[in-house]
Write a structure and sequence with these properties.
alpha/beta, Cobalt-precorrin-4 Transmethylase, domain 1, globular, cytoplasm, rRNA processing, EC 2.1.1.198
Length: 273
């Protein structure tokens, strides 16, 4: 069978006894990076006096997963097979989902162990009382796609959680400051590691604090939801408004993602000739 094993995101002591046992019994280990996994198992072996030798390692990551999947069959999983990403929970902003899907489609048994996860840890650390959140992973580095995703998360009615690298954190804070200077932002640096630190303040205050410091480490960013005023409108509410069709078309296009021209043409098609 296949077992997905979460690995520590910083502190070795966050590995569970169950994960250690599964890794010890593994015969074949698919890894996001074989070098990272071998180093991790060496460290765990030294710390817990466990022999992790005699394992077969195979690379499985976003650039080669399609090729690797073509080489797999049920016989591959007749042994104890494990998948680990470099750190944290597989399939969460990490490879692994296609491997799980392969098992589902081919009726191969699999299991996922619980464990370290930066998203949920940061969520619990943030002090926000909201019970729902959206996860955006890493934003694109630049361009229209990044701007669009940024607008999406700022207009989200749920907490927006994303990852950011130290090289782009200041850029993100500047973008948030320009769009929503008073929006409350929570930042968590290097969760579970020696230099773990958290910040919670308005976007403008965080930008002012960070613009003159050397930013290091990996970051989780949580953005306060957009405050909603009044009731949500649905399409029927807009259709019943006594306003010009062109204005209705613009509102409906904004809600549905259709082009204004397309929606307006639908209005014209309804008018009897």
């Amino acid at each position: 069978m296949l077992c997905l094993v979460p690995t520590p995101i910083g502190n070795l002591e966050d590995i569970s006894n169950r994960s250690l046992r599964v890794l010890m019994e593994a015969e074949l280990i698919f890894c996001e990076d074989t070098r990272v996994t071998k180093k991790l198992l060496n460290l765990l072996g030294e710390k817990y006096n466990i022999d992790f030798s005699n394992k077969e390692y195979k690379s499985f990551h976003s650039h080669n997963e399609n090729q690797i999947l073509k080489t797999l069959d049920k016989e591959t999983f007749s042994k104890n097979v494990v998948y680990v990403s470099d750190a944290g929970m597989p399939c969460v902003s990490d490879p692994g989902a296609t491997l799980v899907d392969f098992c589902i489609k081919n009726q191969i048994p699999y299991d996922v162990l619980p464990g370290a996860n930066a998203i949920l840890t940061a969520y619990a650390m943030s002090g926000f009382s909201h019970t729902t959140f959206s996860f955006y992973g890493f934003l694109d580095h630049k361009g229209a796609s990044r701007a669009s995703k940024l607008d999406d998360l700022l207009n989200d009615d749920k907490l927006a959680i994303l990852y950011e690298s130290p090289h782009r954190l200041l850029k993100l804070l500047e973008e948030l400051k320009e769009k929503e200077p008073n929006r409350t932002i929570f930042l968590a640096k290097e969760i579970t590691k020696l230099h773990q630190k958290t910040y919670k303040n308005s976007a403008i205050n965080l930008f002012e604090e960070f613009k003159n410091i050397n930013i290091k480490g990996e970051w989780v960013v949580i953005v306060e939801p957009k405050e909603k005023i009044g009731f949500n409108l649905d399409l029927n509410d807009i259709l019943s408004l006594d306003i010009a069709p062109k204005i209705k078309a613009k509102l409906i296009a904004k809600m549905t993602g259709q082009s204004v021209k397309e929606v307006y043409q639908q209005f014209l098609d309804r008018i009897p000739s």
